[in-house]
Specification:
The chain has 816 residues and is of the alpha/beta class. It is 33% helix and 22% strand.
C-alpha cells in the first residue's frame, strides 16, 4: 500500500479544541500513534502528536507534516482514548493535554542531534578521510562535533539518512533525541571492547608502557563487563588511560562505542522496614479480595480504609507482586513528592530496578530517562505525584492512589484535572484494579463504597494491635493571655514537651502555616504590607530576611516600608513554623530541633537528610506543616502537638470541615507507632466543632454522617456537581462586564433547568499575579447538562473575544 494512502490525525500543541489531519511527510515515513511530528500551522512549525492513522482521504487539501521527531512512540497508542476523554471532560485542548503529560522539553520544536563518536573521529579523519570530501555535511560535523536543528532535519529527510543510520549502527555516529534545543537528551557513555580481530597482532611489543598497562587492565576488567567496560571506570583506576585509549584504538586493538545510560534519580533512599513474616488478619482479608480481582484483568475499584499505622503499604506491595506475576504493570500515585520518597524505599527494596519515578522534583534529564525506561518496558512500576497518572505504561493492571482524599491530587492551574478521578478512568479503560487508600477517605469515595460502586476493604486496627493515641483538646479561650492573646504553647503542651524530652522520646509540633509571621502590620495606619501583584498580605520569613507572597512568589526585603503610608513602623503579626521553631529553641535550649516545610526542603536531599535525622534519633522535636502529617513512620514519636487546629475552618470553602478533620486525623496518627503509646495535644478555639471532636475520638463514621448531612442540606458534592468558571484580566471592569454577559447568556438558555448559575462575583482572591479575577459557579445534579451549559458559555466567550481570559475548573477542590 503506497504511503500516500495514509493520513494522520494530529493533536497540535496549541490552544485548539479540534485535532487536525495531515498527509505523511514527503520522505514517505509513516509515524505511528504516540510519535511526535513537526506540523505546519499558520505559517509556523509546531509539535504535534499522532493519534491515529486513516486511509480515508479528506475532501479538503492537506498539508504534510514536515518531519517525524521520534524513532519511537513517546506514549502508547492505548492512551489515546484516555487523552481524548481528559480533553473533553476538563474542557482543555487535547494537544495541550498531551504536552502537559510529557516530560518537559519533549513538546518543543525539538528533534534529533547528530554527534560523532571517538571511533568515528578516527575512522573519518585517519582511516577514510576521503568520505569528508564526498559528504560536505560530514566535514561540518567533524569540525563542529554535532549537528542539530534545521541542518539535521534536512539531512534526515534526504537521501543521506540511510548512510547516517548505517554509520550509527557501526558506532561511528550517534543520533540522539534533544529537548528544547538544550543539551538534555539521551545520555551516553564511552565503552571499551577488545577488537575481534586486531589489525596487527604483533603491535603490543611496540606499545608504550602506559598503553601496555591500559591494555592489560582492559583484558582484566572486561570479563566482568560484557556490555563493555565504561571508560570512566578505567580512568578511575589509571589516570594515564585517557591518552593510551586513543592510541590503542588507532592500532586497532580496541574498539570504542557509545551506549545509553540513565541518570539515576534515586540516590540515597530513606529508612524502610523489612518485609513482615506474616500479614495481619485484616490484611489477609483484604488480599483475599484483591488477588482474584487483579487476576480477572477487569476494572475493579476498591477503597482501602485503614487507620493510621494499620499496614496499608504492605497491602500495596503484595497487590503489586500479584500484578507483576501476571505480566502487567503497576502505577502508584501519591499526593506529594515527599510521600513518593517514602513509598519509593519500600518498592525499591521489594522490586529493585523495575521501579521508575515520575514527578516534578526530578531534574529534566532524570525525568526524560525515567520516561524512556517506562516506554521501553524496562520499568514496570511507576511511583509519582499526580502527573504520574500520564505515565506511558502500556498495560497497567493495578493503579494505587495513596492518601486518595488529599486535595493535592487536584491540579489548580492549566489543565485542572483530579489525579484520583483519572486513576479510576484509566483503570476502567484498561481493565485494571484501582486501589484507593486512606485513613480519612474523601466523602465522595466513602459514599461510593457504601453504595456498592467501590468494594470497601477495612484495616480497623494498627499493626500488633497498638492503641491509637490519646487525644486531649485544649480550649485556647480558657488559657491565660499574654498581651491580650493566648501564648503559642499552652501550659499543657509545654509540660508534655518537657516530659517527652525527659524520657528521651521524640515530639512533633504541627502548624499548617510556614514562615515566621502571617503579615507585617503598620503601627501608624493599621494596614498590612501587601503584594503589589496580588491582594494578599506578605508573609515574613525571618531567616531569609524577606517578605514573601505565597501565591506569586514576589519577595522583598523585610526592612521595607508600609505600602499604604510609607511608614517604617512595622510589626510582625501572627505566626508560622519558623516562629514556632524559634520559640521552642528559647524554651528548650538543649533540645535538638528541626523544621520540615517547603522552606527547609528545597530538594530531595534536604528532605531525606531531615527524615534520616529523625529516624536516627538525632532530632528531639520536629516542627512542620502538612508535610509531616502523612505517610511517615517515626516509631519513637510519642507526642504530637497541634498549635492551632482550627486554622482552616474559616476558609470560604464548603470542604473546610472535611479538610480540617483529615489533617488532624492524619497528624494525630504520627504518635504512638512504636512500642510506647502516643499522646496528642490539640490547641483550638472551637473544641466543640464536629470536625475537631471527631478527630479527637478517631471517629470517621461519625464525622461522615455529620458532614454528609450538611452537604445534602446545602446541595453540595457529593449530592451535586460543580464547574467553576474563572475570568481574569489586567483591568477589572472588562472582566466584570464579561462575567455579567456570560451569566446573562446562561440564564437566557431556558433548557438548562437543572443547573443553577451562581454569581458572577469577585473571586475570594480577587487579584492574583497582577490580574483581576471574577468567577461564575455552575451547580446541579446533571453532569451532562453542566458540561453542555459550560460549553455554550465558552463559545460565547470566544465569540466576544477581547483581553479577558477564561479558565474552566470541573469538580473544583479550591474555590479561592
Amino acid at each position: 500500500m503506497p504511503p500516500s494512502s495514509f493520513y494522520l490525525e494530529v493533536a497540535v500543541a496549541a490552544p485548539l479544541t479540534q485535532t487536525l489531519t495531515y498527509a505523511v511527510p514527503a520522505s514517505g515515513e509513516i509515524p505511528m500513534p504516540g510519535q511526535r511530528v513537526l506540523a505546519p500551522l499558520s505559517g509556523r512549525l509546531l509539535t504535534g502528536y499522532v493519534l491515529a492513522l486513516s486511509e480515508e482521504k479528506p475532501e479538503f487539501r492537506l498539508k504534510r507534516v514536515t518531519d517525524v521527531l521520534d524513532d519511537f512512540s513517546v506514549f502508547p497508542e492505548a492512551m489515546v482514548p484516555f487523552f481524548r476523554w481528559v480533553a473533553r471532560y476538563y474542557h482543555y485542548p487535547i494537544g495541550e493535554v498531551i504536552r502537559g503529560a510529557l516530560p518537559g522539553g519533549l513538546t518543543s520544536q525539538s528533534g534529533r542531534q547528530l554527534k560523532i563518536t571517538e571511533a568515528g573521529q578516527h575512522y573519518f579523519l585517519v582511516a577514510q578521510p576521503q568520505l569528508a570530501h564526498d559528504h560536505p555535511w560530514l566535514a561540518g560535523l567533524l569540525a563542529k562535533k554535532k549537528l542539530s536543528g534545521a541542518a539535521m532535519r534536512k539531512l534526515w529527510r534526504g537521501k543521506e539518512r540511510r548512510l547516517i543510520e548505517q554509520w550509527s549502527e557501526q558506532g561511528l555516529l550517534s543520533v540522539e533525541q534533544i529537548i528544547s534545543g538544550a543539551s538534555i537528551g539521551q545520555k551516553t557513555e564511552t565503552c571499551i571492547f577488545l577488537a575481534a580481530e586486531p589489525l596487527a597482532p604483533e603491535l603490543p611489543a611496540t606499545l608504550k608502557p602506559s598503553e601496555n598497562k591500559t591494555l592489560a587492565l582492559i583484558k582484566e576488567l572486561l570479563p566482568n563487563s560484557p556490555q563493555g567496560l565504561p571508560r570512566r571506570e578505567l580512568s578511575k583506576l589509571y589516570s594515564g588511560a585517557a591518552k593510551a585509549l586513543a592510541s590503542l584504538a588507532d592500532h586497532g586493538l580496541i574498539r570504542l562505542a557509545e551506549r545509553p545510560v540513565y541518570r539515576d534519580p534515586f540516590g540515597e533512599t530513606p529508612h524502610f522496614h523489612p518485609r513482615p513474616t506474616q500479614l495481619t488478619v485484616d490484611q489477609q482479608v483484604a488480599m483475599a479480595q484483591l488477588n482474584p480481582a487483579i487476576a480477572q484483568k477487569k476494572y475493579a475499584p476498591f477503597l482501602l480504609h485503614g487507620v493510621t499505622g494499620s499496614g496499608k503499604t504492605e497491602v500495596y506491595l503484595q497487590a503489586a507482586e500479584t500484578t507483576l506475576a501476571l505480566g502487567r504493570s503497576v502505577l502508584v500515585l501519591v499526593p506529594e513528592i515527599a510521600l513518593a520518597t517514602q513509598l519509593e524505599a519500600h518498592f525499591l527494596s521489594r522490586f529493585g530496578k523495575t521501579v521508575a519515578l515520575l514527578h516534578s522534583g526530578l531534574a529534566r534529564g532524570e525525568r526524560f530517562d525515567q520516561w524512556q525506561r517506562v516506554v521501553s518496558g524496562e520499568a514496570r512500576i511507576v511511583i509519582g505525584a499526580r502527573s504520574a497518572i500520564f505515565a506511558p505504561l502500556a498495560d497497567p493492571g493495578l493503579i494505587i492512589v495513596d492518601e486518595e482524599h488529599d486535595s493535592a491530587y487536584k491540579q489548580e492551574d492549566s489543565l485542572r484535572y483530579q489525579g484520583r478521578d483519572l486513576a479510576l478512568l484509566r483503570g476502567s479503560q484498561g481493565g485494571a484494579t484501582v486501589l484507593l487508600g486512606s485513613a480519612t477517605p474523601s466523602l465522595a469515595s466513602y459514599q461510593h463504597a457504601l453504595n456498592g460502586k467501590y468494594t470497601l476493604l477495612s484495616l480497623p486496627s494498627r499493626i500488633e494491635n497498638r492503641p491509637l493515641p490519646q487525644v486531649e483538646l485544649v480550649d485556647l479561650q480558657a488559657v491565660n493571655t499574654v498581651s491580650g492573646r493566648p501564648p503559642l504553647f499552652s501550659p499543657q503542651l509545654k509540660q508534655a514537651l518537657r516530659a517527652t524530652l525527659a524520657r528521651q522520646e521524640q515530639s512533633l509540633v504541627f502548624l499548617n502555616r510556614r514562615g515566621f509571621a502571617g503579615c507585617m502590620l503598620c503601627s501608624d495606619c493599621g494596614q498590612a504590607v501587601q503584594c503589589p501583584h496580588c491582594r494578599i498580605t506578605l508573609t515574613l520569613h525571618k531567616g531569609r530576611g524577606e517578605l514573601v507572597c505565597h501565591y506569586c512568589g514576589y519577595a522583598t526585603n523585610s526592612r521595607t516600608v508600609c505600602t499604604n503610608c510609607r511608614s517604617i513602623n512595622l510589626a510582625p503579626i501572627g505566626f508560622g513554623t519558623e516562629r514556632i521553631e524559634e520559640e521552642l529553641a528559647g524554651m528548650f535550649p538543649k533540645a535538638r530541633i528541626a523544621r520540615l516545610d517547603h522552606d527547609t526542603t528545597r530538594n530531595r536531599q534536604d528532605f531525606l537528610r531531615i527524615l534520616r535525622a529523625v529516624h536516627d534519633r538525632e532530632v528531639d522535636i520536629l516542627v512542620g506543616t502538612q508535610m509531616i502529617t502523612k505517610g511517615h513512620h517515626f516509631p519513637h514519636v510519642t507526642l504530637v502537638g497541634i498549635v492551632w487546629a482550627d486554622a482552616g475552618l474559616g476558609m470560604p470553602d464548603y470542604k473546610a470541615g472535611e479538610r480540617t478533620f483529615q489533617l488532624l486525623a492524619q497528624v494525630t496518627g504520627r504518635a504512638g507507632r512504636g512500642e510506647q503509646p502516643g499522646r496528642v495535644i490539640v490547641q483550638t478555639y472551637q473544641p466543640g466543632h464536629y470536625s475537631i471532636a471527631a478527630a479527637r475520638d478517631h471517629d470517621y463514621p461519625g464525622f461522615f454522617a455529620k458532614e454528609t448531612g450538611l452537604r445534602k442540606a446545602l446541595g453540595y458534592p457529593p449530592f451535586s456537581r460543580l464547574i467553576n468558571m474563572v475570568l481574569d484580566g489586567e483591568q477589572e471592569e472588562p472582566v466584570q462586564n464579561r462575567a455579567e454577559s456570560l451569566v446573562a447568556k446562561g440564564k437566557a438558555l431556558r433548557r438548562y433547568r437543572k443547573t443553577a448559575i451562581l454569581g458572577p462575583a469577585p473571586a475570594p482572591l480577587a487579584r492574583l499575579r497582577g490580574r483581576f479575577r471574577w468567577q461564575i459557579l455552575l451547580k446541579g445534579p446533571d453532569l451532562e447538562e453542566l458540561h453542555s451549559l459550560c460549553l455554550e458559555l465558552e463559545q460565547e466567550h470566544a465569540r466576544l473575544a477581547g483581553a479577558v481570559n477564561l479558565a474552566v475548573d470541573v469538580d473544583p477542590e479550591n474555590m479561592l
